[in-house]
Fold:
Amino acid sequence: MDVFQRFEAVVADQVAALVAEGTIPAEAAGAAIVLEPPRDASHGDLATNAALALAKPARMNPRELATLIGLKLARHPEIATAEVAGPGFINLTLEEGVWRSELARILSEGPDYGRGEAAIETLPVNVEYVSANPTGPMHMGHCRGAVVGDALASLLAFAGHQVTREYYVNDAGGQVDVLARSAHLRYREALGEAIEIPEGLYPGDYLQPVGKALAAEFGDRYAAAPESEWLVPFRARAVAAMMEMIRGDLALLGIHHDIFSSEAALLASGAPQRAEAELRARDLIYDGVLPPPKGETPDDWEPVELPLFRSTAYGDDIDRPIRKSNGQWTYFGNDMAYHAEKARRSSALVNIWGADHAGTVKRIEAAVEALTHGEKRLDVKLVQMVRLFRGGEPVKMSKRAGNFVTLADVVREVGRDVVRFMMLTKRPEAMLDFDFAHVVEQSRENPVFYVHYAHARISSVLRKASELALPVPELSRLDADELGLAKLAAQWPRLVRQAAAAREPHRIAFYLADLAGGFHSLWNRGNDDPAFRLLREDDPQLTAARLELARAVAQVIRTALSVMGVTAAEELR
RNA sequence: GGUCCCGUAGCUCAGCAGGAUAGAGCGGCGGUUUCCUAAACCGUAGGCCACAGGUUCGAAUCCUGUCGGGACCA
Structure:
């Protein structure tokens, strides 16, 4: 239990005491009481709105109630002062010993400081991310979702959830047939034919090795054979090769999924039929005719009866077909069955999708809600696109011409840590600009550098200090500014809980920038006045105390970075 | 035409499940060099939180509508 949770309990106890005394009615105890660090440090260490929240149900003046609660809180041995402020806030200042022992705790718990306790949140969570079509290498379009999904999975795991990282392989649609045809062309090329890649097939030369492997395996057996003879085996081998490539690309970012679920296998298992049967039995699927699309009606549109899922019952605009007029499952039909399957395995589902799939969110959320009998287990997180720049100039990409920027290229150029960190420097729902020149710059504007720099500075000092014989640290030697940094470090467990609850891994990056800033600030104090330097040869006791603080900050930086999948730098070169 | 996302300082963005005087970086102005280095720090100026209603003791935050930018569907 961290500092914040502990004092939340203390506040709750006092509220319960007021109920027991009959000062406030029992039903008021359900009010939303929060305890948070105040924005303004002069307001103390913690602030609670308890009196404001309880005033109305208790039919009392908020400031009077605050005074009452404040008096009770002030008796707590770890609370130095409890002051009523503003409309009825209670500002708490804790005894300094609380923060000193928290500092000691950071060091004793090490990389586990802030880790969620299993008892709090053990829900199994399934995070599905990347799920790129197995038709080519990963490119930058996939990168952000991959990093956000992976960091979220780590965050949830660190917060105490059981996490499954899953990748849905779309190996059953028309795209993979196109892949098989493209591979066949490369196969003929490998056999010595001169080929020309027609419009509509994948032009990338990453299929050349696949063609060669097919030639080696089959000789010229399928060179002139009709498609029906080679499509299935070629498709299987091409998909397998693409998945191997994708796994390799993801590994460059340090991303490893636990499960790769195959759409084709799902289809073969009859899962869509089962989902359909269940929903038909509950009248959530019916045969009907959709209205023509609004706006321009395409010439080939004609009314057809299709099996439709009643997504409108869950807030969608129209009901959605689960099969096409030729009887094949729609993408949605398969996806519905897939999510039903996932929902059986996990109590919470998170999907990380590109913003281009925004239009299909409602129907799949509706389907999960229907199939799980109203439990809203699915949370679809949309990740906006990344715009690439090089020194301020946009990087041109044309997917059709095959000259897109691959993820592997980017990782090779700027490094895995930089890519991972940068992808988390904005809220996922806002567009992100990624400038190759900027992200490797060593300046204050570059948060990756800024955070690494703080850690490197601490590492350097600790290397130097290792030669000194220092006494046991006496943390009471730390001054108010130093204790302020300790308080910031002590917020890490709370940040983990909140970021995990909101499912927003980017908050870690912003917290790290704050923490690093706090450290740089203290460091520079030492440049202004040597008395503030961490290493004070004339005062080993003070040195020992300051190094404890520095160690704790470095520990939290390392832990937070590791949740983001980034390695802390010992030195900068 | 519809759905989704965004609109906070000149620029790029935070804003913690509604809380106190809305924050940070860049850029502007003025300062600070013995530890990893001025690659950093400190100070200062700069805001009708797009707009209009609503809910609330209290709204940048929640709801409705309008305007502007983007993505997608057809």
In short: The first strand of chain A starts at residue 35 and ends at 36. The domain at 124-172+257-383 of chain A is CATH 3.40.50.620 (Rossmann fold). The radius of gyration of chain A is 29 Å. DSSP finds 19 helices and 15 strands in chain A.
